[in-house]
Amino acid sequence: MLTLYDLYERSAMESIENKIKQIRYRMAKIAYETKRGHLSSAYSSLEIIFALYYMKVMRYKVDDLDWNERDRFILSKGHAGLALYCVLQDVGVLDINALNNFAGKMSDFSTHPVSNIKYGIEMSAGSLGHGMAFAIGHAYNAILENKDYRVYVLLGDGELQEGSNWEAFLLVSALKLNNITVIIDYNNRQIAGKVDNIVPLGDLSKKMESFGFETYEVDGHDVSALECILKKKDKKPIAVVAHTTKGKGLSFMEDLDNWHGRGLTEEEWSKAKQELGNGE
Amino acid sequence: MINTFEKAFSELFKDNENIVLIVPDDDKLYSSSRRYVNVGIAECNAIGMAAGLASCGKIPFVKGGGSFLAHRSNEFIRDDVSMQNRNVKIIATGAGIAINALGNTQHMTEDMSSLRAMPNMVIVTPATPTEVALAVPKIAEINKPVYMRIGRHEGIDVYDHNNLTFEIGKGQMIKEGWDVTIITTGTILSDVLQVIPRLEENNIHVEVINMHTIKPIDEDMIIQSGEKTGKILTIEEHSVIGGLKSAVAEVLADRGSAVKLYGMGLQDCFAKGYGTYKEIKETNGLGQEDIYETVKNIVNKVEEF
After folding, report:
1. How far, in Å, CA of B234 to CA of B243, rounded?
2. Which CATH class is domain B172-300?
3. B266-299: per-residue pLDDT in tens?
4. What are phi and psi of B184, to 5 degrees?
5. What is the spatial distance between Cα B203 and Cα B197, in angstroms, rounded to a whole number?
6. Contacts of B20 in chain A (CB under 8 A)
7. DSSP alpha helix (H) spans, chain B
8. Domains of chain A, start order
9. Secondary structure (DSSP) of A39-71
10. Whether A127 and B75 lie within 8 Å, measured CB to CB
11. Are the Cβ atoms of A171 and B50 closer than 8 angstroms?
């Protein structure tokens, strides 16, 4: 029998699912109108970013984005920028009109985010393999200043083919940076196809464990599960292998080739509107 | 010069809580402080971490072999430091061919070329130990990325520092003359100054400028001296492509100057040979005899029009 609490939880989750659907709709609309953005990659990361900002995982102040004690979110897989922007709109960091001219002539918002703390964006991304070392700087600053903020880094699975990540993983352990949570968006896709068919990652969790991380695996589209894991703290740095689907949310995009970095056609937009409930 | 750097830096490090020293396994100094971090043999880590710290308001110094910092971590410098104008100081040791016996991989002979094009970047190559000591607090003061190249050898104070001020971005008139302007960067200045008595004996009176800051470069001094002597010879322990000679050429071209420009340095090649510092300079056309002969030829040359 369902208790009142269960019903409350269910209704809260339904409302979150609906909110995420609305964000997906807004993202699709932008990708259709501007023909820009890496929609499929951004869909893959959406719940992860949403959980960080929306589910009170991260501590931040909308009216003081440069707050020294804030938790940091470093989007290393910059091609998920559209997801970050749309979540930032949802939590009130970005104005609802901020993306009207997304990646347009004089827009402040590029497809790959550009570091600008007044918009809550910590790092310029776009070249993969940069976020980890940058995150180490932020995490080490917390140690120097005796602050208890946490640094969250989102990496792509294909991104792990960049050796700089592994250098940085070694250093995270060496410096005992237990204030870092690394999230790997493991959709098993990169531009040319399946990560497994290009340079496979093998047993990624074991690899992360051997690099000194307390490691969790999670369904990267399950907001409650993400919330629960991302709120964890440990004596060790944390790695979260988030199993995701590239293009999540649109039947004609999910886990399919040729979707990296392109907008939607008229016909695709029509279908997307239907599948995303017209943004309502 | 590294010893001088360490001494000057120690003072700064002691006085300023915001300064952090990051080394890719470079030395064992300051190991008791949390503001000293050895990130291991990983230059990209060093630069990326420094960028993160700088964005938190720290003033990170990254000190290590310049050939690795400038080239291995080049894209980290570009994307995470230069692009955001972040306050990271890169102390690149082994300027030019100062790491004489270890081969080309250790040489800093294209570093200025690749970093000079990076927006916001300040590039300094002190010529003497005292200049290193003077430069350290000054580069810490400016809220910009700085790449400072320092020699591996101790170097000598070849000019009287009491008579000249050291300002980032300002050249120094070491000696006035009228036959040709010699512009140097780094410790090769000492070789030039040692050749001067012989040149004077031959009635050749050179003007010598120490261009310790390659970027921003002292345009006015180049133009004023060049217009006076009509000829400029740049001397650098670096490729003649993209470094001092190129920087001077850009100034002359931008100002529409017809001053004749000559450049000594590596002529689109890596340095040849090993041996002592003196020997490797001689093997690569940067010995004192080479400087003497080149200056004499330039001054005695009848220009063809």
Report:
1. 10
2. alpha beta
3. 999 999 999 999 999 999 999 999 999 999 999 9
4. -125, 165
5. 10
6. 144
7. 2-15, 43-55, 66-71, 74-76, 111-116, 129-141, 188-201, 219-229, 244-254, 277-283, 288-300
8. 40-250 (3.40.50.970)
9. HHHHHHHHHHHHHHHHTT-S---TT-TT-TT--
10. yes
11. no
Taking the Cβ of residue A116 and every Cβ of chain B, the question of whether any pair is shorter than 8 Å is answered with no
Band the pLDDT of A260: cuts 50, 70, 90: confident
The C-alpha of A7 sits at a distance from chain B's nearest C-alpha, in angstroms, of 44
Overall average pLDDT of the B215-227 stretch: 98
Q: Is 3.40.50.300 the CATH number for B2-150?
A: no
Residues 57-76 of A with CB under 8 A from B: 68
A133 contacts B47? CB cut-off 8 A? yes
Q: Where are the domains of chain B?
A: 2-150, 172-300
Partner residue facing A130 (CB), from B37, B54, B79: B79
Contacts of B259 (CB under 8 A, 6+ apart): B226, B227, B229, B230, B231, B232, B252
Q: How many CB pairs under 8 A join A and B?
A: 90
pTM of the entire predicted model: 0.95
Asked if A134's CB is within 8 angstroms of B49's CB, the reply is yes
Instruction: Name the closest residue on chain A to residue B36, using Cα atoms.
Output: A144
Range scoring the smallest mean pLDDT among A11-20, A139-148, B51-60, B213-222: A11-20
List the single best residue of A71, A76, A117, A171 to mutate versus B (max B Cβ within 10 A): A171
